[in-house]
Every structure is written in C-alpha cells, then in structure tokens.
Amino acid sequence: MRIVGSSKALAVCTLFLTWSCTGSTVVNPNDDDGAQRDAGPSSPAPAKPDDKPDSDDPKTPEPDPTTTDPLDTPNDGEPASSTTPGPSQPTPTPTSSNTPRPPPDAPAVDGGSPQDPGPSSTDGSTPEPRPNEPTTPSGDPDDFFGDSRCSDDFLVCEDFENGLDTDRWTPRGPTPTIDDSIAARGKQSLHVHTESNGLSYITLRDIFPVANNRYYARVFVRFGAMPTAPRWAHWTISGAEGSGTDAEIRIGGQYDGEINRLGNGTDRGPTGDWTYLDRDPDNSPRPVPVDEWVCLEWLNDGDAQESKVWWDDVEHPSLFTSRTEHGGGGDDYLLPEFESVWFGWWLYQADPVPDQYDVWLDEIVIDDEPIGCAR
C-alpha cells in the first residue's frame, strides 16, 4: 500500500475541527445497526440501541408494511437472524425549521421540481459554490483511470499499490484484502467481501482534526452486486464520526423497490436516522451501477454545517445538507468535530438478496480542497 501524507497533514493535525445529513429524504426504514461502533483499537465502542423503522420519509412513499424489513442488526461481519418487523412508525409533524420535501408525484412547490421545493436552502435558493469548488465535470470519465496519481499534493492518498497498512488503517469485521486482478488506477485495489448483512471496512484517524473541521473525500468504488430485497435495504460505503455529537455522517444508498439510489445521511445525533436519496438529474436518478467503476466525492464542512456530493465530477444538489436542510426532526443538523472516517461496506438489513456482496475501493483521497476525479 502506498499512502501519501504531506506536510499539510502535519499542519492541520494541530487544529481542532468538526463534522456531522436529509433532502430527497428517506428516513431509513428498518435501518439499522445495533452493533458496537468502532471506538478505536484500544477501547470498545458503546453499544447502539436498535433503530426503529424509518417510515417518516417525506420524499419517498412509505414502506409497504407487508414487506419484510427486519430490524436485526449485523455483528462484525456476521449475519443477523431474522425477526418479525414491527408496525410502521407514525410520521412526525413537520416543523418550520425543516419543511419536508414532497413525494415524487406531488405538485411542484414554489417553482421547485415535483420532488423538491429547492435543493439546499431555507429560502428556496440554490447555494453559491464555495471558492474553487467544482460545479461542472473536470474531465471525461474515460480520463479518470490508468496509472496511480497519488502525490504529496493531498493530505492522504491511498492507492493500495503496496498493500494495506493496518498500522494506519484499522480494519473492522473481516479484514479487506488486496486484489491485483482489478483496479481503477494502478494495479491493485482494496477488496471487501461480506455475507448477508455483514460489515467490513477500514478506519483512518491520524489526520484529524482537520483545518476548519472541513474536508473533501474521494474514492473510486465498484460494486459486484446491489441489494434487490428487502425494499429500503440500506447500505453505507463511508462513515465519519467525532466529538460534539454522536451522529455518524454516512455516504451510501438504499434500494427503493426499483433501483438502488445514492444517498447522503446520518444516524444517531439530534436529527436521528435518515438519508437523502439522489434525484439528479431532473428527478430521474441513475441507478447505482454494478460491475462499473464510479468516482464519488463529498464535502463535509463542519464550519459551515454543510455537506455536498459529486458523482463522476458532477454535483448532485439533491444530496446537499445544511443546518436546516435535512431529513430528521426539528433540531438543527450539526456535524461532529471530525475524528475518524471509514471506507468499506455495511449493509444493515437481515436476509438481503443477494446474500453476499463484493465491493472494490481504489485511490482514496482526503484533502482540504476540491479533489475531482481526474487528479
């Protein structure tokens, strides 16, 4: 494994910072875990109580109560047993600080799309991009791949060309392996394999805190399969945690009964368990593909209390979150003071179809500036 950590990392590690998601909301039905969270190699994480079914989704139709969406939670890589799903939970009353977005077949609201009165702000306006932030594709996807492009320009660049450095990356669940038969760049990638609703991932801590509690993350990811049952099966490829709130900020997605949609959301914390699901472009989201490399980048800005997501260098505004634009309750959505981030795979529902998953990750980059897919 080759890891590049520049002098930037040394400089920012002396600062203190923070991070902690709803928009095209699915407040995750029958999500989630209950397994212990990764509190670091030296001490066990506290157990998390089982989540209730997330049926208060203002953007996606409420899950069919006849659909089997067990509340079981995965152990570290071990499948959980099935249980009888509980009754649907009542939809909470909207608050003025977090007006729910209407379902797909709802009429347009205040000039917005049929699904959304506005992608990102309480006044219905589109947020202004931050300086130097990519708002258009920076390159053709055909130019994203090839040789490794890791360099000292980034806080972290992990291309796995020299294996997996477990002194820096802490595995949880079955330890991912290095695969020299497939790669987005270079000759090797990280291969994650899980059974049923297992988990397998690697956690990084040594670059935190980061300057202004704000960072970009980019990863090339390839899925060997996506869940097709139960409806609302929820999966995550990256989560970030820290101090100030117990919220975990998650990048992943859900199966909506027809397609798997990219998602940005959170679990725990004052706003609870919810996920904004992708609606771009024009309320016709692309299914998350199988057997194809995709480039995903996201910003977690604890200073501005915002998060953004890019797919192949194109921003998806439906996945934007802010202090007041989120899918939880009436509380402000505050990002934690970031202390760790993990990359891998975690599927939460028991008895999924198919019953095993293979995911490949390559050239993970973390930086304090926009990264893009061509660098």
What does it look like?
- The chain is mostly beta strands and 375 residues long.
- It has one domain (1-83, 97-375): Jelly Rolls (Sandwich), CATH 2.60.120.200.
- The protein has 1 helix and 17 strands.
- The chain has one helix at residues 7-12, and strands at 3-4, 25-26, 156-158, 170-172, 177-179, 189-195, 199-204, 214-223, 234-243, 248-255, 260-267, 274-277, 294-301, 306-311, 314-315, 337-347, 356-367.
- The strands form 2 sheets. Strands 1, 3, 5, 6, 8, 13, 14, 15 and 17 form a 9-stranded antiparallel β-sheet that branches. Strands 2-12-11-10-9-16-7-4 form an 8-stranded antiparallel β-sheet, with no helix packed on it.
- A hairpin with a 2-residue loop joins strand 14 and strand 15.
- Residues 6-24 and 32-138 have low confidence and may be disordered.
SSE inventory with pairings:
Elements: E1 3-4, H1 7-12, E2 25-26, E3 156-158, E4 170-172, E5 177-179, E6 189-195, E7 199-204, E8 214-223, E9 234-243, E10 248-255, E11 260-267, E12 274-277, E13 294-301, E14 306-311, E15 314-315, E16 337-347, E17 356-367
Antiparallel strand pairs: 1-3, 2-12, 3-17, 4-7, 5-6, 6-17, 7-16, 8-13, 8-17, 9-10, 9-16, 10-11, 11-12, 13-14, 14-15
The oligomeric state is: single chain
| DSSP summary: helix tally | 1
Relative strand content: 25-35%
* Major β-sheet annotation: 9 strands, antiparallel
**Helical amount:** under 10%
CATH topology: Jelly Rolls
Structural class: mainly beta
Write down how many β-strands occur, each being a DSSP E stretch of 2 or more residues: 17
Question: CATH architecture, please?
Answer: Sandwich
Distance between the termini: 19 Å
Shape: globular
State the order of secondary-structure elements, H for helix, E for strand.
Answer: EHEEEEEEEEEEEEEEEE
